[in-house]
Structures are given as structure tokens and as C-alpha cells.
Write a structure and sequence with these properties.
By secondary structure, this protein is an alpha/beta fold. Helices cover 33% and strands 25% of the residues. The longest helix is centred in the middle third of the chain and has 18 residues, at 70-87.
């Protein structure tokens, strides 16, 4: 089973492909900044192609849940939740230094398919719309 990892909490985004034994098959970091929504799907597609795999080979997703950038977390978790829903595979959200290892361990416990919510680390400050 392949596990896709996604971390978009900072300007440098990260995605990875791992086996369920925590073996890294591929990993990519890039300066996404404001192009994250445009680039993340292409990066996932390229990472899979480098391993001669299709989306259907992914059996689980681990996302970094936060804290981090409001927009970055929303984009990364939306991609992860969307793939989880469409592929009918489990998704887990983790935090901390060893977030990938923790997430893969949780996936072994066969979690349900609930969407992962971001944890920003502070209250969200949304400005009211201008009239």
C-alpha cells in the first residue's frame, strides 16, 4: 500500500510517498507560496509517475494538521480530504516533529474516513467584508 503525505503549513510545501512500512519512496519540497493551489496536484501527479504508480495505488493519506499558515493548511487539507473521499481511502492528520511516522502508525489502526480539520495554533482572524 502506498501512503501519500502532505504538508502545506509553510511557504515550502512537502509531499511524499511511503510504504506502509514507513519506507520513503519519493519526496519533494518546493517553494509554493501563492502557487500552492496550482502546483500541488501537478507535484502529486509527477511524484506518482516517478514511481510508475497511479492515484488508485494510494491506500492512505497522512496530512500535517498544523499549526501553520491559514491558507496553506486549508489548501493541503482540502486536497487530502478530496482524495480520501474520491478514492475511498483513510486519511489522518497529525502534528509535531515526527508527523509522518505517527500518521502511518495511525493508518495501521484502520481509521474512519472523517475529514481532517486544520489546527492553526491561534484564533483565526478573518476581516469582515467591505460593503
Amino acid at each position: 500500500m502506498l501512503i501519500l503525505t502532505i504538508r502545506t503549513s509553510e511557504p515550502t510545501a512537502e509531499i511524499g510517498l511511503f510504504t506502509d512500512n514507513n519506507e520513503q519512496l519519493g519526496y519533494e519540497c518546493w517553494e509554493a507560496h501563492r502557487q500552492l493551489a496550482d502546483s500541488i496536484h501537478l507535484k502529486i501527479k509527477r511524484l506518482l509517475a516517478q514511481q510508475h504508480q497511479q492515484l488508485s495505488a494510494i491506500g492512505g493519506i497522512v496530512c500535517f494538521q498544523g499549526p501553520g499558515s491559514f491558507t496553506g493548511l486549508r489548501i493541503g487539507l482540502s486536497v487530502g480530504n478530496g482524495l480520501s473521499y474520491s478514492l475511498q481511502i483513510p486519511i489522518v492528520g497529525t502534528k509535531g516533529k515526527n508527523w509522518i511516522t505517527k500518521g502511518i502508525k495511525i493508518l495501521h489502526k484502520k481509521p474512519d474516513h472523517r475529514p481532517i480539520m486544520p489546527e492553526y495554533g491561534a484564533p483565526v482572524h478573518i476581516t469582515p467584508p467591505r460593503k
